[in-house]
Amino acid sequence: MKVGMIFECGPKGADKPVCERLARMLQKDITISSVTLTNKPNLVSECGNVAAELLKDGCERIIIIWDLYPAWRDKKLKKLKKLKEKPCLKEDRAAILESLAQAGVVSPQVYLVCIHAELEAWLLADGNAISLFLSKPTDRVTIKDTKKPERIPNPKDHLNKIFETHNRSAYIDANHAEEIVKNINLKKLKRCPSFVRFAEKLTGVTFET
Question: Per the domain annotation, does 120 fall within a domain?
Answer without folding.
Answer: yes
